[in-house]
Design goal:
alpha/beta, Rossmann fold, N-(1-d-carboxylethyl)-l-norvaline Dehydrogenase, domain 2, Single alpha-helices involved in coiled-coils or other helix-helix interfaces, 3 domains, eight-stranded mixed sheet, 19 helices, 54% helix, globular, binds 6-phosphogluconic acid, NADP, phosphogluconate dehydrogenase (decarboxylating) activity, gluconate utilization
Length: 465
């Protein structure tokens, strides 16, 4: 059988995705810029090799696929995508479809989509790392409805399945909508990871727990409300032993976090939309701070070590603080997506997004089931106001306050948890403090203000004339 699907880019993710597609019964032609990579991939494909057609050139790839062709790009985001799109422009026709499955910036996807390409174009966000790509990722698709309809049988077949059996692949909206939702996913991924790192720090430096004990704690949390992939793997990594030192592996890993930019894009976009996502902002900030290794050492040399032992705090408090932080983070993320939907004219479906994130992706968690339900009740309502989550917050906020306060008093940096709490306190305060800002703005710039009594007196006594 001649393939109707092709895939370009046999790196870790591309290779895993191609095997997944072949395994689900779809013949596929593959091509990698380095011919040896293509050959090695095919040679290692085992039982699936018969459904995979290795090709030596881009033209061979196109020739090996019967029209209308669907070609998945799995190359690094950025110029490599533009290069492939340009090369394919000479080879494909108007019924062919190119699907960028990398972590593209959604503005790039919008730009490519609007560029009058000689073929159809989609951008899909694929989450779940190598394991997900191989056995079931979460897929956030952006593009024309007709193109989604064309690809849905394949994408839903290869996607992860939620506990209720629904495939975690859905159409988010036109053009860049899929990559936009994927970048918010990654922003939340950064935030979930950061909050876990913060409570890890409190356990290590505040409570004096060793890595195996911390790992056991995470493993226990993974049995409850916090059940999630990231808490699960945090338990596993904290328990891992290092062959070289004989001690915990975590203790020998440099504390400088890498990043490829998706979290930063989310924060920049949130700023453009004036949609506050402070937990994610704190997470990106913390990664940037973490990479300043020498400066942090210089800071410690001048001010002395920061973290001090903490008393009166239990791991139960940390578990509850993490629950609260997580709810606040997701409330911000979904509110940002609502703002983006309005701004970009996309009908982003909040419950559908929560449902797609239930399995396969890095942020998958038990709580996303409840979030999907709460958002379905009222998609426009801030998640923290949904009765289910409001109840959870009432229970967990005292612990969040305790942890943030202990961090502040004892030099344990917990920016994501602290920003979440500050956002919450602002968002539940009807009479805030921006009256002061408005008066200041009027004082130095005569910017005017509205009054609570409705009188039309927009300036203070400093206004002349
Ligand atoms: C996923 C991940 C994946 C990848 C990111 C992480 O959903 O599967 O988000 O896309 O791990 O590249 O990004 P950083 O390198 O920025 O941490």
């Amino acid at each position: 059988t001649t393939p109707q699907i092709g895939l370009i880019g046999l790196g870790t993710m591309g290779a895993a995705l191609a095997l997944n597609i072949a395994e689900k019964g779809f013949p596929i032609a593959v091509w990698n810029r380095t011919a040896q990579v293509t050959q090695d991939f095919h040679a290692a494909a085992g039982d699936l090799a018969g459904r995979i057609t290795p090709t030596a050139t881009l033209a061979d790839l196109v020739a090996a696929i019967s029209p209308p062709r669907s070609i998945i790009l799995m190359v690094p985001a950025g110029p490599a995508v533009d290069e492939q799109v340009a090369a394919l422009s000479a080879l494909l026709g108007p019924d062919d479809l190119v699907i960028d499955a990398g972590n593209a910036n959604f503005h790039d996807t919008n730009r490519r989509n609007a560029a009058g390409l000689p073929f159809r174009f989609m951008g899909i966000g694929v989450s779940g790392g190598e394991e997900g790509a191989r056995h079931g990722p979460a897929i956030m698709a952006g593009g024309a409805s007709a193109d989604w309809a064309r690809m849905a049988p394949v994408l839903q077949a290869i996607a992860a399945r939620a506990e209720d059996g629904t495939p975690c692949a859905d159409h988010m909206g036109p053009a860049g909508a899929g990559h936009f939702v994927k970048s918010v996913h990654n922003g939340i991924e950064y935030a979930d990871m950061q909050m876990i790192a913060e409570v890890y720090g409190v356990m290590r430096d505040g409570l004096g727990m060793d890595a195996p004990a911390i790992g056991t704690t995470f493993a226990r949390w993974n049995e409850g409300t916090l059940r999630s992939y990231l808490v699960e793997i945090s338990g596993i990594v904290a328990q891992a032993k290092d062959a070289a030192s004989g001690g915990p592996l975590l203790d020998v890993i440099l504390d400088a976090a890498g990043q490829k930019g998706t979290g930063r894009w989310t924060v920049i976009e949130a700023q453009n939309l004036a949609a506050p996502i402070p937990v994610i902002e704190a997470a990106v900030m913390a990664r940037n701070v973490s990479s300043r290794v020498a400066e942090r050492a210089a800071g410690e040399a001048v001010f002395g070590p920061g973290p001090e032992p903490v008393t009166g705090l239990s791991t139960g408090d940390l578990e509850q603080a993490l629950i609260a932080g997580k709810i606040l983070c997701y409330a911000q993320g979904f509110a940002m997506m609502s703002a983006a939907g309005g701004e970009f004219g996309w009908a982003l479906d909040m419950p559908a997004i929560a449902r797609v994130w239930r399995a396969g992706c890095i942020i998958r968690s038990a709580m996303l089931n409840d979030m999907a339900e709460a958002l379905a009740e009222d998609p426009g309502r801030n998640l923290m106001l949904a009765p289910f989550f409001a109840d959870h917050l009432r229970l967990s906020l005292p612990a969040l306050r305790k942890v943030v306060a202990a961090g502040a008093l004892h030099g344990l940096s917990c920016p994501a948890l602290a920003f979440g709490l500050a956002w919450f306190d602002a968002m539940r305060t009807a009479r805030g403090t921006a009256n002061m800002i408005q008066a200041q703005r009027d004082f130095f710039g005569l910017h005017g203000f509205k009054r609570l009594d409705g009188l039309d007196l927009p300036h203070g006594p400093w206004a002349k004339g």
